[in-house]
Amino acid sequence: GNSVTQMEGPVTLSEEAFLTINCTYTATGYPSLFWYVQYPGEGLQLLLKATKADDKGSNKGFEATYRKETTSFHLEKGSVQVSDSAVYFCALSSNSNSGYALNFGKGTSLLVTP
Amino acid sequence: NAGVTQTPKFQVLKTGQSMTLQCAQDMNHNSMYWYRQDPGMGLRLIYYSASEGTTDKGEVPNGYNVSRLNKREFSLRLESAAPSQTSVYFCASSADLILSYGYTFGSGTRLTVV
Fold this sequence. Notes:
The complex is a heterodimer.
Chain A: E1 3-6, E2 11-14, E3 19-21, E4 23-26, E5 33-38, E6 44-50, E7 56-59, E8 62-65, E9 75-77, E10 86-95, E11 100-104, E12 108-113
Parallel strand pairs in A: 2-12
Antiparallel strand pairs in A: 1-4, 3-9, 5-6, 5-10, 7-8, 8-9, 10-11, 10-12
Chain B: E1 4-7, E2 10-13, E3 19-25, E4 31-38, E5 42-49, E6 56-57, E7 64-68, E8 74-78, E9 87-94, E10 104-105, E11 109-113
Parallel strand pairs in B: 2-11
Antiparallel strand pairs in B: 1-3, 3-8, 4-5, 4-9, 5-6, 7-8, 9-10, 9-11
């Protein structure tokens, strides 16, 4: 079935550093790809998405490009802030005979220090 | 704009007790989902409901039952709680069947089974 693998954390960066969180996927068909963010004690929030190859999702300075040739959807941000400290989840849509669901990676914890 | 509402937010159960986690959405979404989140495991799908009147098993359904009461509500029941069911439970809903828009998540229920 469809699955994602994302880099293990935790990732610790200084404020204003460049961020990359790697995500690769295995899929049949043409899944949609997502990044979700979870702040401490909260639920997951959609950060960005891409629904077809070469699409770039972007939001709040974060970007990710759907690369079919490398089966990747890496998350990047040019200059992180302390407020970006959170856990980031890569996900893709997966379908069965009964319907669709999202399959999530294990999450990458990011800590940004002043 | 309430979105997805989960109750309760916290619960402690003794082994063998039963309880129902409630989830309601006010966005007129057809599809609803239950996940559990455990450290180092990411989010794993327990059950989902592609539309009112249908439910299907996800990756980890053992020990759980669900009811799609109507379009708005999707409950998760633990008939005889076990310590292995200690987790954070998230309900989510989706506007479209193929998940082009991803999910909207509730804020979670933190369950401890002692």
